[in-house]
Write a structure and sequence with these properties.
By secondary structure, the protein is an all-alpha fold. Helices cover 39% and strands 3% of the residues. It is built from three helices and two strands; from the N terminus they run αααββ. Helix 1 packs antiparallel against helix 2.
C-alpha cells in the first residue's frame, strides 16, 4: 500500500521504488501495468516532493536521469538533427499555454502545427531528401 499519509521521505522512497518497477515493466519486460499518464503522475509527485525538500533528492532518483536501459536487439542511432523531448500535456489549457510561450519566443513567426496520436513506447524519426525517404 502506498504511504500517502506517511512522511514525505517515506512517500518519496515509495515513489522511487514504484517508478523503477514500472520502468522495468515498460522498458525491459514490455508489459506495462499503468498508462503513461499514470506514470507521469507518479514522476510529477516525486519531483514536487524533491522540489519542496531538496534533501529528498537521491542520486538514483528517476528525476535525476533519463530513461532506462534499451531493449536488446536495437542498435544505437545518432539522429541528425537530434531528437528533442517535449513535456507532457493533458489539457487544452496546457496546450494553449505552451503555444503562447512559443509565440513569445518567436514573435514574428507564423506558427503552424500538426498533431497526431502517439503510440505509447514508440518513436520514429524519418528523413526525406528531395522527396525521397533516405
Amino acid at each position: 500500500m502506498p504511504p500517502e499519509r506517511e512522511s514525505p521521505a517515506a512517500r518519496a522512497a515509495w515513489l522511487r521504488a514504484e517508478i523503477a518497477r514500472h520502468e522495468r515493466l515498460y522498458y525491459v519486460e514490455a508489459r506495462p501495468e499503468i498508462t503513461d499518464r499514470e506514470f507521469d503522475t507518479l514522476l510529477a509527485e516525486l519531483a514536487a516532493l524533491e522540489a519542496a525538500d531538496p534533501a529528498l533528492v537521491t542520486p538514483d532518483s528517476p528525476t535525476q536521469r533519463v530513461g532506462g536501459a534499451p531493449v536488446e536487439g536495437f542498435a544505437p542511432v545518432v539522429h541528425e538533427p537530434p531528437l528533442q523531448s517535449l513535456d507532457n500535456t493533458y489539457s487544452r489549457e496546457e496546450l494553449a499555454a505552451w503555444i503562447d510561450r512559443l509565440g513569445r519566443l518567436v514573435p514574428d513567426a507564423e506558427l503552424a502545427f500538426v498533431a497526431e496520436l502517439k503510440v505509447d513506447g514508440v518513436s520514429i524519426s524519418l528523413r526525406y531528401e528531395d522527396g525521397v525517404l533516405v
